[in-house]
Amino acid sequence: MKSICRLWKKTLQYVVLGAFPVLSYQACTQNFSTKNALPQALSLLTDQSQNENLPKDPLPPDDFDSPTTLEGKALYTQNCASCHGAFEITTKNGRTLANIAMAIKEIPQMGALKNLKESELNLISEALNLIAKKTGGANPFVCKADQDPGISELQRLSRREYIQTLEDLVDGQFALADLGAQLDLLPADTVTTTFDSMDSSISGTHPQAYFAVAKRVSELLVAKPQWIDSVTQCSVATQGMTTACWNRFFSHYAMRVFRRPLTSTEQSQYKAIFEKHQSDGVATALGAVVQTLLQSPHFIYKIETQGEAITGRDDLLRLNVYELASKLAFLATGKGPTLELLNDAVSGKLSTANGYKEAVNRLFSSAHSKKHLKEFYNQWLGVNRMPASNHTDWFLGRISKNLLRSEALLEVDEYVTHFTWENPGTYRDLFLSEKNFTRGPALAGVYNVSLPDAGLLEDQVIEAERMNASVGQAEDGGWNLFSNGTLTQQIQVTTGKSYTLVVRARASVAQNIGAHMILRFNNQVLGQVFVTAASYADFSFVFSPEQASGNLVVEFDNDVYDPATNLDRNLYVDKITLKVPNATAPGNLSENHSTGERSGLLSRAALLMSGTNQSSLVHRGLVIRKNILCDKISNPIINENEKELFAPPEANPLESMRSQIEDRTSPNRCQACHSMINPPGFVLENYDGLGRHRLKESVFDLQGKILATHSVNAQVYPNIEGTGEAMVDGLSQYARAITESSKGPACMVQQWFAFNLGREPSLADSCTLSHLYQSLLDQNYPSASEDKPATLLNMFKSLAFDEKFKTRKVHSPEN
Amino acid sequence: MIYFNRKTRRQFLFNAGGFALALPFMPSLLPKAFAQAGPKGKRFIAIHSGHCQAVEQWYPNPQNLSWVERNEHAREVLLATIPGNLSQVLTASFNPVRSKLNLISRLDPTSSMPNHNAEVVLGGGVLSEISQTIDHVLAKKMYNGAPLNLFVKSVADSNYSGASHMSVSGGSYSPGVSNPSSVFKSLFGTSGNHLGGVDKKAIARDVSAVDQVFKELQTLKQNRRLGTEDKQRLEKHISLVQQVQTKLVESSSEEAPTKLACEKPNGPASSPVFSSQPSDYGVVIDQMFDVMEIGIRCGKVGVATLMLHVYDYFAGNVGFIPQVSGNFRFHEDIHHADSAEMRVMKLHVNRYFADRVARFLVNLNDVEDPLTGMTYLDNSLVLWGNDQGALKHTGGHHSKNQPVLLAGSAGGFLKTGKYIDYGPAYAGNNNLVGGEEHIYKRGRPYTQLLVTILQAMGLSPADYESANQQGYGVYGSNTNHYDYLAGNHRRDILPLL
Question: What is the pTM (predicted TM-score) of this model?
Fold first, then answer.
């Protein structure tokens, strides 16, 4: 009986989710298309065999099958879901009748709902209050195995994919920098949501850029006989393009460009181009062929039209093996397939389960894959859009803003590297780990931590051009001290230990005397040497520091410059390596951050840094709600006379930033969004504009004098999945609430889906999302890749094993 | 009628990789990377006139401008926003190319005080301090040749030979030639000059490639397994490829304007040099500009200099200029007198030069490459300079604030259409150092202009620096004056350009 109830309930869920058309507001995004879903949904009511395959029950078996709840859910789906998400993952659970009525009255975008009766609003409210009681963490995605996947439009390669794929196709014969001017013509992809891969539009400059790049590559090809021989596997200059050469060209090079073998017709067409221009020379004619290939739509677009029609439908295709190889390659590495993968397709290996699994694991273990996944993290977390630092010097103190940016990005890189590959971790690790990945003094300054062991995690390399220079200029990858002067860098060390400093330097000698270089640590002279080497050479100094921190100084003190006699003595410094005794690799630090201060990625500087001294409360909240929780938050409609209301508030000696924001966003029409944005923004008020932890918000004057302090109140009702959630205090608890919700992990798998497939998932993709969700969280969910279950890497790979991934649904040609 | 040179366009298009296809017309929008793709196809022309410019005649009135203060210790204003004429000297004749000009103030040589030393313009110092001017460096590096040095000498006099010239090579002046018709014949001969044409084979390959892409797109669009939106995207792609096709076909057409006629261009058959008629001076100037223009259009001139006026040239008499009433000697009577009356005369003389410079620039502002819309002027850099500073007191020899007018963007390397002020140009009478200057706006060393030009033309420091000196030109005792810029600025190009 229990299982029958369960089946009945699941079936009804599907009906509620899919049976009704969704109303779209002017300022909201309609993500879930449910058009024509009613007949299919109704058919499910009598098809219980399909229902046996549904994932485990996401909702508790309370009153969800009561008629009133079903009616309330149906009304919600019809009227609210387009903005607030599907019922099971709604952002509005717990809303009361009064809340809803007020919102309709106050929020212009909700004006269309004024016709709803109070009884209908009440039904919606009751259903929302029921869902607020459900246990968090359950899989919100409802899967029906034979449901079509979401519709995929024809995608062009994103700029990133195009460049990375092109890099493979030039076979290392030249650096892409040689194509810099041509690639500059290729417009950047527009990031309207989160990811660059979601822009498939084609603009006027795209064909021009493709033309220019292809032409330039062909010119470079023609100029490199060895490359021509490589792409043809022939000695073309001596034997010409024989049939064997053509075959090898098509199977070794052209197949990589098209990501599939060329048809015989296509081969004939390309041979015709060659023959037409053969009188220009074999190499030049072959260059014309390559020039054409690289502009072809079969290179520019991810074309998936050759697969088998599923049940005879041209709008639902099972990808053929080459299309699958291509899709897999872009998923795992962000670029087109290698020859090895294509050959797996040619040989049929990729069509076998083991062969496919082997390919997935191989690709995901490649260096390209790591780069690709890190790109996902960066775009997902928004750290690729970290603002430039305009912090004042007094606010920075001893923290170098130039170093901080790179160190903060490096920290994220190492954080995700650690939990994705080195020590495969979980979703919780991303948001809760207090592991210390601090490298370098700037970040240590922000976190107020001592760099472990001898003040450093590992040998520290100090590039001369990043040191504070009293004179000179960057040159030749280093710094040219062309007059008497110094290079200075603050370092931290441990007294009583012995260090080796290696200075890489060279000199221009004048009057047969080299450049006199003195090395000091504060006032402690570590050594001196006359540098005479014309090329960079290493000069080592061993020292035991007398102080734990201070300035490491390279000094040049015997400059000579006389243009009349062409005398010029300079000291050039490339870098200084501070060799640390028993250096510790990052990620293996014994010490964590102080409990509660740095809980997960959200607490790290790369995500917290604002461009100014002021913390960016609203921006931080928006990033978490949009990127981490996938809330659809539209830009506010700003009337001319309200502009001031939307300007960032100034720090106020009389009022904390939280208090100011609370005041400003208190109107109901603001609360529609700010009830979501403010809580994460408030908990992050424990971090200042650099990301330093604080218990008090200081208000400064322009010179850095503290005018007032306000205690930070980081207590909020998180409103992650709806109102009614227990109060949390600070980021640590808020982050834990994210990990314990369905919404957080559900968002991550949707983001991974969108990043790779170039579109936001629709309701029709629920099976895929459900599969990813289980792969991310469920320790008992089998891993097709045989990775550790419920790990990040396992989830990333799982998309490749999803059956829907291997199909394509297109708009009906009749549409 | 003169048509553009196919070879030049080909060099421009194909040596730069062809990527400039259908770029926006505004050169300031061109990517720097393109502009740095290589020196070929770019031209550098330097024009000199002497005896200084009066500051209030040469520059717009700074009080009337909407300056934008910049962090680079400078301020700037768009020339387009300046009402009326740019200045008393730079009149409406410059309006057609106003967006392609840059007017710069407060570039100061760091060397010895010039005394009618025209070489300062391209060398940053006087003859005793320099061995080579940048025209020679550019000609060598860009075209493995020598610059075309021209100077105007329409009337016989004996006092010019000892005066300075603009171009220096091997530590000596490189005066060049003064007869434009002879220059024309040396460039084009008498039997016509065949410069070849566009690389039709290369264009044919381009056309083949784009035609095939077009066909593939058309075929793909017919695929029943694509949705409506997919097909719309492809349709747009097809239309854009058609535009590329059209431009390629036009560029390979036998029809004008792509049909080039540099084989027998019209040029001056004779020139009234050594004339006893002062008015012939204007004829020779015009011919000089015409020859340079034809040479540029036909790919014959890559680097050239033209001196409009040599010290004490023309026996000092500028009475042939219509507005100059009386027989005044430019140097003795006008320049050194510095009276109110003579300042008006100075304005007439400099306007006379200005109108001819403007005519030259406007003529060059003719489309060179239909594919990109780039004009000859866009692909060139023209410098009109003076060896003496533009001050309030114009009677003396001063070097501060050398008047600089740049035209063209060197193929997109430079942003154009600005008046950039690196320091107060109106301060003081003779000595601009200190005084009214703000401590952080002391001007910039003139050598930075030379480095900017060298790099704009595609050269790197290795191409022009000597073993013992960074930058280019003379870094004399005044160099320390620019310490406020922080660090070494010898390799920096001028900011805001």
Answer: 0.58
